[in-house]
Design a protein that fits this description.
Blueprint (H helix, E strand, L loop, with lengths): L2 H11 L4 H21 L11 H34 L2 H7 L4 H35 L7 H28 L3 H17 L5 H4 L5 H5 L3 E4 L2 E4 L4 H23 L4
Antiparallel strand pairs: 1-2
Helix pairs in contact: 1-5, 2-3, 2-5, 3-5, 3-6, 3-7, 5-6, 5-10, 6-10
Keywords: Membrane, Transmembrane, Transmembrane helix
Pfam family, one: ABC2_membrane_4
Protein name: ABC transporter permease
Length: 249
């Protein structure tokens, strides 16, 4: 990993309001998680399934918010190279386009990881202190859900970095982000086989809880599918970025 290139990407973030986008992502998911339990007529902070209500809210909020904002993050971080001819400038200093994409993914990936984990911790804190949920948190299920959503977020981020690097018109990338949001939400009503067809479908596969009957219930997490997504996305990102290295900037 080119540490200097990653450091340069963090320096660029100061002018791109990446932190603001990440904060909006966290607060939007938190708001939707709280709305789910507040709007439920059967929710009780004393019920054994109380934490499932917040997990169901996060399972809905992340697919609604993350696809588009991840597209925005990748687009802003990459479009600066198109506008300032950064690909050529960095190539003359020895950093090929593929290396820049890997540096961008590393830098943005750390931001996305911090926001995803931070959202999960914040929802727990708010659920305990503000909502007043009494039963203990099911940490194993909560950590598993957070890990699954992190993998999906990183896979989608990687795809958008490649798309934004390849296509000069960033409206295309943002349009794909909107389409990803639609696919992420509607995949919740599709068979599991269909949800596996796109990266955004994995948001639906990784739902941790849902409203069934008159109560929130925990759902099993698809660890094998998420692991397969991580491997496939990682291999494809590596192959494509190394192909970028052998193309003209």
């Amino acid at each position: 990993m080119n540490v200097r290139a990653v450091t340069n990407e963090f320096a660029k973030m100061r002018h791109l309001r990446v932190g603001l986008v990440a904060v909006v992502m966290v607060l939007a998911v938190l708001g939707l998680s709280l709305y789910t339990v507040v709007s439920s007529p059967t929710f009780s902070p004393d019920a054994p399934s109380a934490w499932n209500g917040l997990l169901a809210g996060m399972s809905l909020g992340i697919p609604l918010i993350s696809p588009l904002l991840l597209a925005v993050l990748a687009s802003r971080q990459t479009d600066i190279e198109h506008q300032g001819n950064g690909w050529l400038l960095q190539a003359t200093s020895g950093l090929a386009p593929g290396g820049m994409c890997r540096a961008k993914f590393t830098a943005l990936g750390l931001v996305v990881a911090a926001s995803t984990i931070g959202t999960s911790l914040l929802v727990i804190m708010v659920g305990k202190l503000l909502v007043g949920i009494v039963p203990p948190v099911s940490l194993a299920h909560w950590v598993g859900f957070t890990g699954c959503m992190l993998v999906v977020n990183l896979a989608v981020l990687a795809g958008h970095i490649l798309l934004s690097a390849k296509v000069d018109n960033q409206l295309v990338a943002l349009g794909i982000g909107i389409l990803g949001t639609i696919l992420a939400v509607f995949s919740q009503g599709l068979p599991a086989v269909a949800a596996h067809a796109t990266p955004w479908g994995y948001y639906a596969l990784a739902m941790a809880a849902d409203y069934q009957g008159s109560d929130f219930v925990a759902l099993p997490l698809p660890y094998p599918s998420i692991a397969a997504l991580a491997v496939v996305a990682g291999v494809l990102f590596t192959i494509i970025t190394y192909r970028f290295d052998h193309q003209e900037a």
